[in-house]
Design a protein that fits this description.
400 residues, alpha+beta, Endonuclease III, domain 1, Nucleoside Triphosphate Pyrophosphohydrolase, 7 strands, DNA-binding, MutY_C
DNA sequence: AATACGGGGTA
DNA sequence: TACCCAGTATT
């Protein structure tokens, strides 16, 4: 088929399909650029169904650029709690403050200006410009790369930045005049609901008859994408430090460093354990004969780390004393849990602990390091926690 | 070009 | 279990 006709057909049919099939999503009910912006940041690497409740709460709490600009960062992180990729929240607020101060609260409609804002990359810039301002800019995300790879039977590796650039150029050329916002959303909507990563529903696809990938029988093999490295395993001993006396009903928590993983979030004190003795090394078997990592993980989850609990508890006590000057007395194993980041896998062994006598003394009530606090477990709203620690704390609360 | 950066849905 | 999600920043 003539290439130009294939493109024209695609844009026309996709737009018609979208107008009759689009989902009623909260951020589609207005063109408020601030709402669009917030939704697009939340939607980065995150599913629509996950975002919806966060979006409602966030807009209710921070209804305008001015409101978000004026909020304490901890409140913003708390509103983002559980959503992940917390630099999105910190960058969003930083950028909103920039818009508040430099642009009089008006989200820029200029591509260069909006692209300079923190957290606004090529996808988000194109999404805001097209959806809020109807500018003919492409918005190429994972959905769009998949849909176009299949429709045009492109076999370039979508993990490569150069491929994204090429698809952006292709997508820009597909935008119907005056329909940038609807068209970009239609492309993503098709990828999310019909042209899915696995088992695409080609029979219900509005552009199936000219889809080169389907016609070649390779739709399910596309897009080509090099697979990510598996996360590296880490073992961590976690201290669930239960207060007594003046700190009865409280847990000892600490704030993470300013930068890096889970920056500025709060957590239970913990320490990394030495790497587990790998089964293959220990038994001298080849890696191919070694048990799958999942089997090793299940072994860890079963109740004990390789070391005895006594050894791990001693390690935890010594580490917190040396690193943070915290005196604790580990009492007993509490639970194990596992947490998977995209690049790290935490095997966590949680121990119920008490504060050492010195930390309870009324003579030294302020001896905690500045990033430590006693937390009332029923008043957690000021402290944003990553989900992994929320799970542990909620398990503890459920047993009270 | 490769890596850091969360958490969860789904087949 | 493997894949991937309305990606961006940093190195």
């Amino acid at each position: 088929m003539d290439n130009q006709l294939q493109k024209q057909y695609f844009s026309t049919e996709l737009l018609l399909w979208y107008e009759r099939s689009k989902r009623d999503l909260p951020w589609r009910r207005s063109k408020n650029p601030y709402y669009i912006w917030v939704s697009e940041i939340m939607l980065q690497q995150t599913r629509v169904d996950t975002v919806i409740p966060y979006f409602h709460r966030f807009i209710e709490k921070f209804p305008t650029v001015a409101a978000l600009a004026a909020a304490p960062e901890s409140e913003v992180l708390k509103a983002w709690e559980g959503l992940g990729y917390y630099s999105r929240a910190r960058n969003l607020q930083s950028a909103v403050r920039e818009v508040h101060e430099q642009y009089n609260g008006i989200v820029p409609s200029d591509k260069a200006e909006i692209s300079e804002l923190k957290g606004v990359g090529p996808y988000t810039a194109g999404a805001i410009l097209s959806i809020a301002y109807n500018q003919p800019e492409p918005a190429v995300d994972g959905n769009v790369m998949r849909v176009l790879s299949r429709y045009f039977a492109l076999e370039d590796d979508i993990a490569k930045p150069s491929t994204r650039i090429g698809i952006e150029r292709l997508a820009q050329g597909l935008i119907p005049a005056g329909e940038a916002g609807a068209f970009n959303q239609a492309l993503m909507e098709l990828g999310a609901t019909v042209c899915t990563p696995r088992a695409p529903q080609c029979l219900t696809c509005p552009v199936q008859v000219h889809c080169a990938g389907r016609l070649a029988g390779i739709a399910e093999q596309l897009p080509v994408k090099t697979k990510a490295k598996p996360p590296r395993p880490e073992r961590r001993a976690v201290a669930l430090i239960v207060g007594s006396g003046a700190h009865g009903g409280q847990l000892l928590i600490r704030q993470r460093p300013q930068d890096g993983l889970l920056a500025r979030m709060w957590e239970l004190p913990h320490a990394e354990l030495p790497p587990a003795r790998s089964a293959s090394a220990a038994e001298g078997v080849t890696p191919a004969a070694a048990p799958a990592r999942g089997a090793q993980r299940r072994a860890a989850r079963g109740g004990v780390p390789e070391e005895s609990h006594d050894v791990v508890m001693a390690f935890l006590r010594e580490h917190l004393a040396a690193a943070d000057g915290i005196g604790i007395v580990p009492k007993a194993w509490f639970m194990n849990t596992e947490h998977v980041f995209s690049h790290i896998l935490w095997d966590m062994f949680v121990y119920r602990c008490e504060a050492a006598a010195a930390a309870l003394s009324s003579e030294a009530p302020n001896s905690l390091p500045p990033n430590y606090r006693w937390l009332n477990v029923n008043e957690m709203e000021e402290y944003p926690f990553p989900n992994v620690f929320l799970r542990i704390i909620n398990e503890y609360k459920s047993l009270l």
